[in-house]
Amino acid sequence: MSPRVITAVGYALIGLAALAVEVVARRPGSRVPTFAQLVHTVMRERWGRVGMLLVWWWLGFHFLSRS
């Protein structure tokens, strides 16, 4: 397998794991927070908003910029 395929499979596994956690979080009576609840909690504090800004910047810089 090429490194590109390994990377794509790794990202797919991360996405499936996130989807599985979201499904578990949406079950009635679950103590696991949904992704929206997690983001809401993080965004309450200033450091959380700065952190989210840096994450969005990093994603945009690495995935949307052209070399």
Write the layout of secondary structure elements.
Blueprint: H1 3-25, H2 35-42, H3 46-63
How would you describe the overall organization of this protein?
The protein is an all-alpha fold and 67 residues long. Helices cover 73% and strands 0% of the residues. The protein has helices at 3-25, 35-42, 46-63. It is flat.
Radius of gyration: 16 Å
- Integer average pLDDT: 94
The portion of residues assigned to helices is over 70%
Reported for the largest beta sheet, the result is: none
Structural class: mainly alpha
The backbone outline, from C-alpha atoms, is flat
Q: Count the strands?
A: 0
Count the DSSP helices. Answer: 3
Labels describing this entry:
3 helices, mainly alpha
Task: Please sum up the structure shown.
This protein has three helices and no strands. With 67 residues, it is mainly α.
